[in-house]
Design goal:
Strand order of the largest sheet: 1-4-2-3
Number of strands: 4
Largest sheet: 4 strands, parallel
Pfam family, one: DUF7831
Strand content: 15-25%
Radius of gyration: 14 Å
Number of helices: 4
Protein name: DUF7831 domain-containing protein
Oligomer: single chain
Distance between the termini: 9 Å
Helix content: 25-40%
Length: 123
């Protein structure tokens, strides 16, 4: 049921596969359309939080000092993903994973990054 999308997706890719649920790296505010979130407003998409805000200010990024809060946000998003995925044939993840791009999760919150990566790898 899980597929990995190789390369960088476009709205056209996503629109053409209505039975696929595309999962992108998101922020807590669910705003912005850069990076993986270019597909944000399409109906067959869902975001997993990897950043607080769509900004480059230091307070926009997750840190491991808030690890428990980060886990809660991620866990809630994964529950929502499972619920929404019942309406789709496939779940599609980006080949470059989550949090390694604009969110810099792997650098700024490595424990959170590992937690999220483990969850995704076990879907």
């Amino acid at each position: 049921k899980v597929k990995i999308f190789q390369g960088i997706w476009t709205k056209t890719n996503v629109k053409s596969q209505k039975d696929h649920l595309y999962v992108f790296g998101d922020n807590d505010l669910k705003m912005g359309c850069k990076g993986q979130a270019i597909i944000r407003y399409l109906p067959n998409t869902i975001g997993i939080p990897t950043k607080k805000k769509p900004s480059k200010h230091a307070n926009s990024y997750y840190t491991d000092s808030e690890f428990e809060l980060n886990k809660t946000k991620i866990d809630n998003a994964i529950k929502e993903l499972f619920e929404k995925s019942k309406n789709y044939k496939y779940i599609v993840f980006p080949s470059n994973g989550f949090g390694s791009g604009l969110a810099e999760l792997d650098k700024r919150a490595p424990n959170t990054f590992k937690y999220l990566t483990n969850l995704i790898n076990n879907i």
